[in-house]
Amino acid sequence: MTTILKTEHLHKVYRLGSLRRNVSIQALNDVNLTVESDEPAIVSIVGESGSGKTTLARVILRLVEPTAGKAMVYDHTVAGKGIKPAKREFLSMVQPVFQNPFESFSRYRTIDSYLFETATRVKGLEKAGASEAVGEALASVGLEYSDVRGKYPNQFSGGELQRMSIARALIARPRMLVADEPVSMIDASRRMTIINLFLSLKQEYKTSILYITHDLATAYYISDYIAVMNRGNIVEFGAAKQVLSDPQHAYTRLLLDSIPTLKHKWVRQA
Amino acid sequence: MNLSLLERDSNATATGTLLKRKTPRLNLRLKLGIAILAFFVIGSLVLPFFTSVNPSQQATYLKNLPMSGQHLLGTNALGQDIFWFLVFAVRNSLILGVTVSLCITVISTLMGLSAGYLGGWYERIIMLVVDAFITIPVFPILIVLSALVRGSPSFILIGLVLVVFGWAWGARTVRSMALSLREQEFVNMARFSGATTFDIITRELLPYTFSYIVVNFINTILFAINMEAALAVIGLSNVQVPTLGSILFWALNYNALLIGQLSWIVAPIVATVLLFLGLFLTSTGYNELSATRRGVA
Amino acid sequence: MIRLNNIVATYTTQRGSINAVDGVSLEIPDGIILGIAGESGCGKSTLMKVIYGDVVSPLSLSAGSVEYGFRDERGGEVTGRNIRRYWFRRISYIPQSSMSSLNPVVRISRQFVDFLEPAKNKAKVLEEVRAYVKQLDLPPEAIDAYPHQLSGGMRQRIMVALATFFQPDIILADEPTTALDVVVQKSILLLLMELQEKMRNTIILVSHDMGVHYQATHRMLVMYAARAVEYGDSEAIFSRPLHPYTRMLIDSLPTIGDDHARQGVPGRPPSLWEPLQGCRFAARCPLATEVCRQQEPALTEYRPGHFAACHYANQQAREQPLQVSEVRP
Asked: Where along chain B do its domains lie?
């Protein structure tokens, strides 16, 4: 069994406030997560705001340094207190998809310049090979290079930008794609296009996906494993279908109960 | 995975947002400012080719001649043609101003962006230096300097002092812009695309600070010309070389008003005011333009 | 009864004008929660603004009118132009983001006073407010706090308190729970439903989340590209949607415990800048025929109280689900 993701004693404390009155926020509180799977898997981290799920993603992406502990992806240590992996190696292990597609690209650069740059710098391809890689990645997310070439972010919709963001990440052939609430800023009617894309990419590119979300329904739909977080702790973890059909922890039950589902109406107190 | 043709129609959105880059429509202020500057720049750069006389050479002509076809602004008490002296003065002031401003802008931008983006000890040291220089007033330094050089410092020296003491302000502002920019998601995107620190500073951060830099550049030209002119008027610059300040120095020293050679003192004042007006209008006009483009105004 | 008579709301910019709402006519019965659903850009927020009477440049009402169904103190008509005077008293508005609606440097108590009774006895007003917010599950100390000291859920409850204090006839809520977590969302929605039952007034709720509509609304309006495409009882719409867009919207949502493959609605809405012909959904509709592309279907009553704008609505009712869904292993 391969350990696709493992975190050991991850802590993250934020100290806010002034000299006299300061507040510590425990964003991650001794997070120990181990996900083992022979096949590439989609692991969802679900929780509400303040649960620590975004902090966890940002720690793994090395955008935030943890106060203690470390994180490993496919047995490579990618993040941790005082840990600095080699740049190229890291970029081939982990790649992000951010929440806000409109802020993911600079207004002053063409989108394909980011993809091209990823191909040449992370993958080390030459110009011709890089162009091919970009075209292939865009095709796998349902876009044509000719439609994208030379265009700026303001010429695309949120869904298209997000797909291009995913294409860019794929060029690097990461072992794990870390998607931080990738569809929360996309219209509800168009979310499934992206969600289904994650599913097919798992098959096609053999990349595992860490899917951060507050939307249990989409998490149920694509995940192999689910971790439920609350206040910096993982309160429940297991196979997705299992956790959501037979939740053990009270908080998971509360979450499930609160979803505006189409299956039955909420029970109201008299 | 091939989605329908509809997905490819990326030029249409239901809310009709602005899709293509359009060339900006210049506002009146900017047009006026550029017109004035163009007048001065072209005039001062092109006209010198049409005269073979060195305007700073004294006693070339008869003294204190009135305005005429031969001497557009008359001659002064030193026997120089006022008009040609003024043309060269504008040219020299502009050259000094632009050069100094260019140096200041480059230095302050690089320092500010790198300090803001990299943070840590590097930032702290740079900000310490910046804060020190901001508090030191540059004009007294220039006065002390020229006293040390016995009253006639070269333009290179003046320019150098202006640059050394002038880059701090811009650096501070650019650094605070960099502080907020580095938190933007697209910077992270660039990092994950393999960009180096230099790439990020030049390709991700710099474009977002561009409009500030342009405005700062223009304002610094104003600052530099102003400083030099102020020095010259009190006689502490190289007054042999025609600049806007030195022309005023001579005019004041020879009491142009009293002897009735009004054009000698009035012309440079009008020229200076107009030049500064041109710079100001261009600077604020551009600011307005970039604000509307951002959708702020 | 609120009547919307052929509302056409236009945004005028340097580039030209665009009809964000293009001819919507409806009758909204009193005492219900009406949900407005549709993707971004469909015109639902603009329609809300028109109903609220918040029509300021560049937005203008090019045609149509709103009849509110109540009269003013002197028995005169209340129209879109003088509805402003009745803000908070007979019609109020709950915005999406409470954080941008509350003044961050002013205590909540003062904001209540500012909104509700600017001229009268402040102490008395505050007393009443404190008593009222207790009913909304808020600690009375919340009134003395600054907005940033309260959680998002509490702030939104404050907004609900503000909006319902005078028990207005109409409450407009524009995505009131979108920025909130799912647990808090449920409590706010239940609160709104409870208040509506007590006050027997009309709530118009905009949301992009069909689940919210299913749980909280009695009737629903589905909008697409500035037009109304379906209107009817929520239960009826969810059990038997008549318009293909509605069906695709409902079908695209994953549900826990349900292993059917789902698909997003492909394509994008048409650009409102271009002149449009025929049914606006035709380009994305699997059932579209030449008739659809030439002739725009009118909003027709196919069943009592259930309207749809589709040439094939009748057939919809009898047919199989739009997509053949495979059960995933």
From this structure: 32-294
> Under DSSP, is residue B171 helix (H, G, I), strand (E, B) or coil?
helix
CA distance B296 to chain C (A): 15
What domain range includes position C198? 31-53+168-318
Please give the Cα distance from B228 to A105 (Å, whole number): 44
Inter-chain residue contact A169 with B192, CB threshold 8 Å: yes
Give dist(CA A88, CA A235) in Å, integer. 34
- The CATH code that applies to domain B32-294 is 1.10.3720.10
| Residue A263 counted as domain residue | no
Tell me if the pTM is above 0.90: no
Kindly state whether residue C4 falls inside one of the protein's structural domains: no
Assembly ipTM: 0.91
Residues of chain C neighbouring B16 (CB-CB closer than 8 A): 15, 18, 271-273
In terms of domains, do C182 and C201 share one? yes
Q: Does A144 touch chain B (CB under 8 A)?
A: yes
Does residue C250 belong to the interface with chain A, where contact is any CB pair within 8 Å? yes
C59 to chain B, closest Cα gap in Å: 13
Q: Which helix (H) or strand (E) element contains residue C19?
A: strand C16-28
Q: Work out the minimum CA distance from C224 to partner chain B, whole angstroms.
A: 10
Strands C202-206 and C170-174: parallel
pLDDT at A121 over 70: yes
The pLDDT, as a whole number, for residue B3 is 31
C325 is a domain residue: no
Residues C156 and C200 in one domain: no
Chains touching chain A through at least 3 C-beta pairs below 8 angstroms are B, C
Q: Residue B74: which region, alpha, beta or left (left: phi > 0; alpha: psi -120 to 50)?
A: left
User: Which residue from A87, A105, A144 is facing B8, i.e. has the nearest CB?
Assistant: A144
> What pLDDT, on the 0 to 100 scale, is given for residue C149?
83
Backbone angles phi, psi at B196, to 5 degrees: -90, 170
Residues C263 and C128 in one domain: no
Whether residue B4 lies within 8 A of chain C, CB to CB, comes out as yes
pLDDT recorded at residue C119:
63
